[in-house]
Amino acid sequence: PGLDAVEFVASSDGREWTKIGDGIRDAEGWELAGIAAPPAGFVRAQGKAITSNRTTALFEKTLLIGREPTSIEAWRLGKFGSATNEREGDNLADPDGDGNKNLIEFAFGSDPLVNSSGGIPQWVSTPNGQEISFDQPLDVAGIIYGAEWSDTLTGGNWYPAEDLSEGNRRKFRVQPGSAPNVFFRLKVTAP
Known about the structure:
Layout: E1 5-11, E2 18-22, E3 24-26, E4 29-31, E5 41-50, E6 56-65, H1 71-80, H2 102-107, E7 124-126, E8 129-135, E9 144-150, E10 159-160, E11 162-163, E12 169-174, E13 183-189
């Protein structure tokens, strides 16, 4: 169907959007005239159409302008068709329902659309303590890996594990201690 109205919005991060203007119909479609687009970030055209059965259909197209996509944006574009950190491609979404959020799937090179439960590295007991190690996928950039331990699961009592990483090989260790219970967690952060 033909569009009845188009609005242009912009975002620097692909999450928070600000209207920059209404579209103006021209011979080739719709344009944003007289308003400067931001120098870098995302620009989205959002269109509405009234269908033959009098319902409203929404259409949108998002473009990244002024810079190359980051590693995770390129991954989102390939997996979800949009580089933005929202909807199915949001870092905290789990579209395949396997319990691994998109940020985890990206950080460990798994497919967010195929159940990959069990594909996350596990802590193992060694003579030197508890360790976790894995290879960072070569096409993953911009991710900060870390590990922590605690003798309680309360919020403020987590301590950093020893980081023994070299190159793309990530390795973390927690020395044996005297606490009866010790808990471990792996952290993945996108700056």
